[in-house]
Amino acid sequence: MNKQSIQIALAYMSVVIGGGFASGQEVLQFFTGFGMIGIVGTLVSGLLFAFLGMQIARMSSKMQANSHKEVLCILFGARVGLVVDLVLSFFLYGVGVVMLAGCGSIFAQQYGLPPLFGGVLMTALVIATLCLNVTRIINLISAVMPFLLAMVLLITCYSIFSYNAPVEVLDAVARENNETVSSNWVVGALLYASFNIAVGFPMLAVIGGLTKQPKAAALGGVFGGLGLGLLILVLNIGLFANINQLQGVEMPTLALASRISPILSMVMSVALICMIYSTAVGMFFAFSARFAKPESTRFKGFSAISVCIGLALSLGGFSKLVGTVYPLLGYVGFALILAIAYSWIRNRSGATVEVQKSKLNPLV
């Protein structure tokens, strides 16, 4: 695996792993709530991440795509591709709203402050960043990603080996006392992969287009997807091992950290806020840039208004929004998955026909 493959793999993982994943609420509703069988669900999602990442990166590399819109046009055609792009833009806005709610939940759970306090603080930070174009702040926050991942892995690994209830009891508690995005674990696994692909598709398409070697791009997509699958698996097992102590908790990983140390819990809360900030800025920027030129006066005004509206919508609560917005985005992502799968089958069929022709007529 060369340098380009590694860069694509890391970029793929960083786009998908946002504040929702790090909080543990996503994994709780998409996997852990199904009990032991949810572990199989994480494997299904991991394989889908690898396959879809491979296809998107390779297709973008072959096209030398400058924008995800070019890839959408190939997958759906010009008119339908435009509709899909607009729908994705509005759902990315929904993810930004969820991030505002997540910040409110952190301040409520960790510091005992009203959720609105955290939501208003994050709203002000996001608007300031979008209006002032404080790129250094975003770059600084991006550096939190490896630190946050290390913390999540350490906390969950510790939690796996410190569980205090039989597996049968944990399985029963997980199934009976937790809301899931679907009544079926297979649908939950598919939804998780599809909504994350919908969120990560624009960035992955652009990064793949910067690579002139389709094989290297495809390899990066595969390893990035497998890495995501591994992270989800570890976090899911950690949450499952302690599910009897996570009932009604908005930020599961923060709750696990508080069981280990109050100081660790405080550090984890700051890291989560940074991750949520980074994700929120990315989502609201992508949404506003769809309707106004970045850095223009119109862009700044549109961003400020859209983020304030997002604050009002975020009052619905973090866990409720995760269970509503993300599954809906997942159903939209199904269209992407089907289009990518159809493109893959069509290309394989075309390649098979060419091989058969060459065998029948060596001069071709």
From TrEMBL:
Keyword Transmembrane helix in record: yes
Chain coiled-coil ranges: none
Top-level taxonomic group: Bacteria
Xref: InterPro entries: YkvI-like
Keyword tags: Membrane, Transmembrane, Transmembrane helix
Entry's transmembrane regions: 34-52, 72-96, 116-135, 147-165, 185-207, 219-243, 263-287, 299-319, 325-345
Keyword Repressor: no
Protein name (record): Membrane protein YkvI
Species of the source: Pseudomonas saudiphocaensis
Taxonomic lineage from the root: Bacteria, Pseudomonadati, Pseudomonadota, Gammaproteobacteria, Pseudomonadales
